[in-house]
Amino acid sequence: MTAALFAVPGALLVLGAPVFLVFLLGGVLAIAFVLPLPPLVVHQVVFGGLDNYALLAVPFFVFAGELMNRSGMAGRMIAWALALTGRIPGSLGVATVGASAAMGAVSGSSVAAVAALGKTLYPKLVEAGYGRERSAGLLASSGAIDIIIPPSIAMILYGLVAEQSIPRLFIAGILPGLVIAAMMMAFVVVAAMRADVQRTSRFDGREAWRATLAAAWALLMPVVVLGGIYLGWFSPTEAGGFACLYAIVVARFVHRSMTWNDIAHAAASAAVMSAKILIIVAAAGLATWLMTTQGIPQAIVAWIDGVGLSPFGFLIAVNVLLLAVGCFFDPTSAILVLAPLLVPIAVTFNIDPIHFGIIMTVNLAIGMFTPPFGLNIFVAQSVTGLPAHSLYRGVLPFVAVQVVALLVITFVPALSMTLGGAH
Fold first, then answer.
1. Is there a cis peptide before residue 387, judged by omega within 30 degrees of 0?
2. What is the pLDDT of residue 198?
3. 22, 115, 377, 389: least buried by Cβ within 10 Å?
């Protein structure tokens, strides 16, 4: 089982095999030679893994992102962020983190944000002197903020499984998301000061105001989408469809930057990108299902419960566990499997379930771009064309930054509970 699920996929990944094949072949080998299961299970699990209402957000927001890119809305958001950052080292990188955070307030989908912003931001970052590896790493890691800043699909699932208030989880995620974004920006600035990175022009109030007016419709999109969710007008997944409609109306009738033919081409491009993402999700679902059915996560949780840890030790152990799990499990699967097992243990240590939900979410967000199997890495690979080993080098510095932020969020509960409220 270990060879089928870990050794063989790892070897295939090193040899440069397609990502979906890496996951799929490992599961097929386990079923064919290790487990007494019929081959039909592969078909059922792979296609069943896509039978998830929340996954509809991916093609919706990929399409919305494609419309924002082709219509110039994303470019206006970037120009606005650059106008605000002014002549500081790493201004484009800071604007990248800011744009990713803004996308998080629209999509709540990490992979959708990486896919949507990658096409626009990656060439600009490389041209500005950030380097291919560091640029791809910045995009993959910044996209993880989308899982934390509401609306967040991961938080919705946690709230349902752990029987906690989803609005409170949304509110509790605001400050931790901003803390991570701030630490990412600080790292980008420090790194840019040590490298030959182009700077933008100095801050100009009039230029900032013009950029704000030009980007007003793009900046209003997160406000409308998030406000609609809070007011109960639509669910986060339905918000994806509304984001598409909003982007079409603005692109076609307000900015008049796209024809109906352009919109059709954007839809076709979004369909291809969505297919690339979802085939990876489907194949990874097979490996996740096998690990779950074989009791691997449950065995790890049982070990943690039986060691007799202090609250401090428990939180450290949970962080280590979730960071490891996040490398192999998508947040949806990890939350559905682990939250019912971990939350009762956390409660015995007097850890607020809302705070614990934020800890779980941040851990799994980091896992989205942590080698070897972080999903954002492979989405960034499909956008940039870089080999996996180059992306690994690019994301590692940002993994370190976000782990430091995770420790701050874990051991300073006020960051979650100040807005989320006491339990």
1. no
2. 62
3. 389
Q: Locate 81 and state its tokens.
A: 């962020």
pLDDT at 387: 83
Of 65, 64, 1, which Cα lies nearest the Cα of 33?
A: 1
Q: Is the dihedral of CA 340, 45, 62, 234 positive or negative?
A: negative
Residue 256 makes CB contacts below 8 A (sequence gap 6+) with none
What pLDDT is stored for residue 423 in this prediction?
41
Stretch (H or E) spanning 357: helix 353-367
Task: Quote the percentage of the chain above a pLDDT of 70.
Answer: 89
pLDDT of residue 400: 94
Residue-level pLDDT at 334: 78
Residue 371: φ, ψ to 5°: -60, 155
Are 147 and 373 within 8 A, CB to CB?
Answer: no
Q: How far is CA 185 from CA 69, 74, 228, in A?
A: 23, 19, 29
Residue stretches of the chain with pLDDT short of 50: 422-423
Write out the DSSP string of 372-421. TT-HHHHHHHHHH---HHHHHHHHHHHHHHHHHHHHHHHH-THHHHHHH-
Q: Taking a C-beta distance cutoff of 8 angstroms, is the pair 81, 94 a contact?
A: yes
Residue listed under structure tokens 């040590």: 194
Task: Measure CA of the first residue to CA of the last residue in the chain; give whole Å.
Answer: 42
Q: How far apart are CA 364 and CA 332, in angstroms?
A: 9
- How many whole angstroms separate alpha carbon 101 and alpha carbon 219? 12
**pLDDT for 365-384, tens place per residue?**
998 898 877 778 888 888 88
